[in-house]
Amino acid sequence: METENKIIKNRLEQLRKKMKENGIDYYMIPTSDFHNSEYAADFFKTREYFCGFDGSNGTLVVSDKEAGLWTDGRYFIQAENQLAGTGVILYKMGEEGVPSIDEYLEDKMNLGEVLGFDGRVVSAEIGEELEKRLKNKKAEFKIGKDLAEEVWTGRPALPCHDMYVLSDELCGKSFKEKLNDVRAKMKKYGTSMHLLSKLDDIMWLTNLRGNDVECNPVALSYAIITDDMFILFVQKEEVTDEVRAYCEKNDIVLKEYAEYAEYMSELVFTGNVLFDKRNTNYLTFKLLSDKAKAAGFETVDKKDPTELMKAVKNETELKNIREVYLKDSAKLTEFIYWVKENVGKIPMTEYSAAMKLDGMRAQIPGFIELSFPTISAYNANAAMAHYEATEDNAAEVKPQGMLLVDSGATYMGGTTDVTRTIVVGEISDEIKKHYTATVSGMLELADAVFKDGCTGRNVDIYARRALWDIGIDYNHGTGHGIGYMLNVHEGPQGIRWKYAEGASEALLKPGMIVSDEPGVYIEGSHGIRIENIVEVVSRNENEYGKFYGFDHLTYVPIDLEAIDKKYMKPDAVKLLNEYHKAVYDRISPLIEDENVKAWLKDATREI
To answer: Domain boundaries in the chain?
Structure first.
């Protein structure tokens, strides 16, 4: 018999009382902070507080009659377990017959009922879609209140950490130079004000960094740019003397983060306003739209100019990134040697292996933090692309099969991301076939030549061809951009094959860096992913146009114990041998241990 979860039921009852007091019939709680960050700090884990489900993606909808949680396939089993006894219904997103949140609300809400949510944690796009869906219901929206404030006892504080300044020498371009570029774009769009809400864009533009989002060196902030002012909203407790002096020197006007909404509501518009709907919360969007309309001006929805500027790295950034990747690659190589030498000899779990690698990385000069929690997955666990081992729930790594490790860090000079699947014992011929095809795909994409005007969708086939040839595929994108001492997942560039109506695509341009990470995931058996980071570079220019390609940034050996040449085309064999020669040449000088160096020589031998 299912045990009743009285704690969650009691919290939901308290929430329903507050809904009734505020005239709200349905209340929606997504997984997000005020800036749609990849990781939500404890302060923002409202959905978890009210239903118990702690996965990274999910939305809770509560009415007086029922509560439902929507999450994706990664979390179905976890959600079923954590929702047991709460009375919360699990809605499995994407499954046949399961309504979306929009469809559910459209079906359940009566004429004139009220939908409530904290408008700061819902994007403008989602808010607008709900407006359209519920128009026929004449639904009213109440978006100005976070009901959790009145219910959540012992709520964690808003993240608040000291900010710090990066030198112009480290960034390659000063704040004022970047600001001039943004203002030129504003002028082009016919706007005299620009609202910036995306944290990594604000940090990149200002050459400031923080520590308010896990694994992302950013500070909670908003920025307003006009023709003659730059206003930065941050928590005053985060402003060190160094940051204050820097802001004064650069004419950055500091305002209190908590006063942003009030400031926006009183702001006098003197022209059209530029903003990016994808990166603006619904409350801000409504404020902007209403004020602009009342003043007789327009809101111009365009991609933040900073997005592309940030994605195309300058020469200083690229030089530092290349150096950081070599140091990071050398350390990962030492870790692979450690795993192979110690598996079966000392107690080793997925978690302890991850902790070992994290500790090794922390020794690299300039280390700031991990760029994401290390994924360490043994054998069948590696078939789950977003598997996460914990100290209390981690498989033992035995001298059989493979260990997949996806990891990275942020350093002074760059942010890294790399995956290797390491052979720790006997593997089957089928696994060798899958591994060899994955390696072939990674190398063939990295060797691609393509014309100016191509997006990631034009080149994705290089990574998948060897896998499609044997009738298998992987259910994720092949590549994402990476920030400079910023978020490990960055746009606008990406590499994926599938066409989607209206989906935004970005041209691949020299100076962009992008991941190259094909894989194979066989449920209950094994998972393989090989990920290198590559830099988009110019190859040549002639009467047919400009031709681009990729240069490797990652130099870590591929495990030859899993390579079977009979599954490789001659060109792929050549690419592997060339890559391994470069790996040895570039990182052996960074490795001091002669045993590791001797192992590396053999691990990068020609086949």
So the answer is: 6-150, 164-310, 312-603
What CATH homologous superfamily does 6-150 map to?
A: Creatinase/prolidase N-terminal domain (3.40.350.10)
Q: Give 549's strand partners.
A: 449, 537
Helix or strand run (H / E) with residue 409 = strand 409-411
Give the span between the Cα atoms of 505 and 73, in whole angstroms.
25
Cβ 207 vs Cβ 222: under 8 Å: no
The C-alpha atoms of residue 421 and residue 172 are separated, in whole angstroms, by 35
pLDDT digits (tens, 9 = 90+) for 553-570: 999 999 999 999 999 999
Contact 433/530 with Cβ under 8 angstroms? no
Query: CATH assignment of 312-603?
Result: 3.90.230.10
Amino acid at residue number 117: F
CA distance 25 to 162: 40
Residue 602 sits at the vertex; the CA angle it makes with 599 and 607, to the nearest 5 degrees, is 155
Q: Are strands 193-196 and 164-165 parallel, antiparallel or unpaired?
A: unpaired
Contact 423, 378 (CB under 8 A): no
- Tokens standing for residue 338: 């450690």
pLDDT (tens digit, 9 = 90+) per residue, 51-83?
999 988 899 999 999 999 999 877 888 899 999
| Identity of residue 554 | T
Which residue(s) pair with 558 in the sheet? Answer: none
Q: What token pair was written down for 299?
A: 């809101």
Cα atoms found within 13 Å of the Cα of residue 253, Cβ hemisphere only:
10
Query: Tell me, which fold does domain 164-310 have in CATH?
Result: Creatine Amidinohydrolase; Chain A, domain 1 (3.40.350)
Q: What is the sign of the dihedral through the CA atoms of 115, 120, 122 and 124?
A: positive
Question: What confidence category does residue 2 fall into, taking pLDDT thresholds of 50, 70 and 90?
Answer: low
Is the model's pLDDT at 1 over the cut of 70?
no
164-310 and 6-150 share a CATH fold = yes
Taking only the tens place, the pLDDT of each residue in 476-507 is 899 999 999 999 999 999 999 988 887 788 99
Tokens of 380: 């069948």
Class of residue 188 by CB neighbours under 10 A (exposed 0-12, middle 13-18, buried 19+): exposed
CA angle 298, 33, 142 (to 5 degrees): 60
Q: What is residue 341's three-state secondary structure?
A: helix
Helices (H), 387-543: 429-446, 456-468
Provide the 3-class DSSP secondary structure of residue 411.
strand
How many other CB atoms are there within 10 angstroms of residue 567's CB atom? 19
Cα separation of 464 and 404, whole Å?
A: 19
Measuring CA to CA, which residue among 184, 197, 200, 265 is closest to residue 231? 197
Reported pTM: 0.93
Whether a cis peptide bond, with omega within 30° of 0, leads into 217 is: no
Cα–Cα distance measured from residue 263 to residue 224, given in angstroms and rounded to the nearest whole number = 11
